[in-house]
UniProtKB/TrEMBL annotation:
Protein name: Cobalt-precorrin-5B C(1)-methyltransferase
Keyword Transferase: yes
UniProt xrefs under InterPro entries: CbiD, CbiD_sf
A GO term for molecular function: cobalt-precorrin-5B C1-methyltransferase activity
Record's catalysed reaction(s): Co-precorrin-5B + S-adenosyl-L-methionine = Co-precorrin-6A + S-adenosyl-L-homocysteine
EC main group: transferase
Superkingdom of source: Bacteria
Organism of provenance: Chamaesiphon minutus (strain ATCC 27169 / PCC 6605)
Pathways involved: Cofactor biosynthesis; adenosylcobalamin biosynthesis; cob(II)yrinate a,c-diamide from sirohydrochlorin (anaerobic route): step 6/10
NCBIfam families recorded: cbiD (TIGR00312)
Keyword Disulfide bond attached: no
Entry EC no(s): 2.1.1.195
Encoding gene per record: cbiD
BP GO annotations: anaerobic cobalamin biosynthetic process; methylation
Length: 379
């Protein structure tokens, strides 16, 4: 499998090319620029697609994202950086601006979604090229960012109108590629198939925990679940559930963001958005099943994200009914039942499954009855 680079790396490469063009007052003939990734500590060369002076004191650099062997929607997307000489009154040596297609953090006064590692990468690499008297303004633009963001869960975590320059490293590991599935299966086999099966005792009686993504992993550990019980599944839930059954795992706790995990309630066992969605349909069907009035169902259909549905339900509870508790309680039980049925269909083994779902603030919003029992055992 081939690894690639994260979006902050391409934004930095575009900015370096634009700055070099600005300093030379003409486009550079170099087809690549060299970047210090900082994390990991290595230097790499990134291809430049285009670079040009826009006007006096302003230049544009363009790269194209290459995330490696990932199912990544940013593949080949253009990453622009406009660099201009700043007014001497500018406080910062390098001012970073989020342009079109870079998301805004709606819960942080619409600050651009340019996170710590991206800022560090840009500041460190551009700073090396500046003289002590020079100051610049760098505007990062993702021309396709606004459209691509509609296919992500960004809005669920407070990022709107675009994509994030997110990551803690410059290397994009192929987490969504088939090789990552094998890595997850290897971890599962190591923690059960080769590790605990047959040992007996208290350890074997504890559930294994499938966490979908980094948010689930972090919250599960905050709640007291030990790391050696946890397997980070990414989007490969179906094959991992089947393998758990084949290995004879008796208990599983599914732990994830509600916008991902509710897909299982609809029988979708590969949760990557490239393959299937259906979240709104699943939520509306569950709401109808629990008796939500028709007028509210119509409003739910008009929501754009699963998080919007949750917010609507939180503010629309009427007549003493707690719709969030009822609907998500039903959904978690549905997740359990569909998962158990799926495991049996794939492995002819019975596994007890519980589930926990949380919102974008990492607050648990529903736990199935089986999930509550498992949490008590694990925590």
């Amino acid at each position: 499998m081939r690894s690639g680079y994260t979006l902050p790396v391409f934004a930095t490469a575009s900015a370096i090319a634009a700055l070099q063009c600005l300093q030379q007052s003409s486009p550079t003939n170099k087809p690549v620029v060299t970047i210090d990734l900082i994390t990991p500590p290595q230097r790499v060369e990134i291809s430049i697609a285009q670079v040009a002076l826009i006007q006096s004191g302003m230049a544009l650099g363009i790269t194209h994202s290459d995330p490696g062997d990932n199912l990544d929607l940013t593949r080949d997307t253009p990453v622009w950086a406009v660099v201009e000489w700043a007014d001497p009154s500018q406080v910062e040596t390098i001012a970073l601006v989020g342009g079109e297609g870079v998301g805004k953090q709606s819960n942080l006064d619409d600050l651009p979604a340019i996170y710590k590692y991206a800022r560090q990468l840009l500041q460190a690499n551009l700073g090396l090229l500046l003289t002590p008297a020079q100051k610049i303004r760098v505007t990062i633009i993702l021309p396709a960012g606004r459209i691509l963001a509609t296919r992500t869960s960004n809005a669920a975590f407070g990022v709107v109108e675009g994509l994030s320059l997110l990551g803690t490293t410059g290397i994009s590991q192929p987490l969504s590629a088939p090789g990552q599935l094998e890595a997850c299966l290897t971890e599962l086999r190591g923690k059960w198939g080769e590790g605990e099966r047959g040992k007996g005792g208290d350890s074997e009686s504890l559930p294994l925990v499938f966490c979908i993504g980094e948010n689930g992993l972090d919250l599960a550990q905050q709640m007291g679940i030990k790391r050696d019980r946890i397997i980070k599944t990414a989007n490969w839930l179906g094959p991992l559930l089947a393998e758990a059954g084949s290995l004879g795992v008796p208990k599983l706790l599914l732990f994830g963001y509600h916008g991902k995990l509710i897909k299982l309630a609809g029988g979708i066992f590969h949760t990557h958005h490239h393959l299937a969605d259906g979240r709104l349909e699943i939520l509306v069907a569950a709401a109808a099943r629990m008796g939500l009035p028709a007028a509210h169902l119509s409003e739910l259909f008009d929501c754009e994200t699963a998080e919007d549905v949750l917010k609507y339900l939180q503010i629309s509870s009427d007549g003493g009914s707690n719709w969030v508790t009822q609907i998500y309680g039903y959904l978690t039980e549905r997740i359990d039942n569909r998962s158990q049925t799926y495991i049996y269909s794939q492995s002819q083994q019975s596994v007890s499954v519980g589930s926990v779902v949380f919102d974008r603030q990492r607050r648990v919003i529903a736990t199935s009855p089986t999930g509550r029992t498992f949490l008590t055992q694990l925590c």
